[in-house]
């Protein structure tokens, strides 16, 4: 009995990798084994950076809130502590948006803490 290799599934598997490697430089987009390694590494980076993106945004929001708070003569930690004690439920994303785009509303929040 002849050996069954299931060429259809093998070709699909290779095509999936080669499609993902489109746009890569040189052999990374042409040679299957090189492309496979490049795509695997890219997927690792994508997984890692999806998590790092959340950290980066939080750092950015804190920097923006701190800058906005200091213009009103208060620092970041005092502002956050005041929000907690006053039971004002505004997250850092919203506070950063207020500090950047709506300075009057941010000033109202700071005044409520004082």
Describe this structure in words.
With 114 residues, the protein is an all-alpha fold. It has one domain: Ribosomal protein L20, C-terminal domain (c-terminal domain of poly(a) binding protein, Orthogonal Bundle), CATH 1.10.1900. The chain has helices spanning 7-20, 32-70, 76-85, 92-101, 103-113. The relative contact order is 0.08. The model has no long low-confidence stretch (mean pLDDT 96).
Summarize the structure.
This protein is mainly alpha-helical and 114 residues long.
Proportion of helical residues: over 70%
Task: Return the domain count.
Answer: 1
Distance separating the two termini: 86 Å
Strand percentage lies at under 5%
Structural class given helices, strands, pairing?
mainly alpha
Low-confidence stretches: none
Q: What profile does the largest beta sheet have?
A: none
What is the number of helical segments per DSSP (H or I, 4+ residues)?
Answer: 5
The residue-averaged pLDDT reads 96
Overall geometry: rod-shaped
Give me the Rg, rounded.
26 Å
Q: What name is given to the CATH topology?
A: c-terminal domain of poly(a) binding protein
CATH H-level superfamily title: Ribosomal protein L20, C-terminal domain
Q: What is the C-level CATH assignment? A: Mainly Alpha
Number of strands: 0
């Amino acid at each position: 009995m002849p050996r069954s290799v299931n060429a259809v599934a093998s070709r699909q598997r290779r095509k999936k990798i080669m499609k993902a490697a489109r746009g890569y430089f040189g052999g990374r987009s042409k040679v299957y084994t090189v492309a496979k390694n490049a795509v695997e590494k890219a997927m690792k980076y994508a997984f890692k950076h999806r998590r790092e993106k959340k950290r980066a945004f939080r750092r950015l929001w804190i920097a923006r809130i701190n800058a906005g708070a200091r213009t009103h003569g208060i620092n970041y930690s005092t502002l956050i502590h005041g929000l907690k004690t006053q039971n004002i439920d505004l997250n850092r994303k919203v506070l950063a948006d207020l500090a950047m785009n709506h300075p009057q509303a941010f000033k109202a929040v700071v005044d409520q803490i004082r």
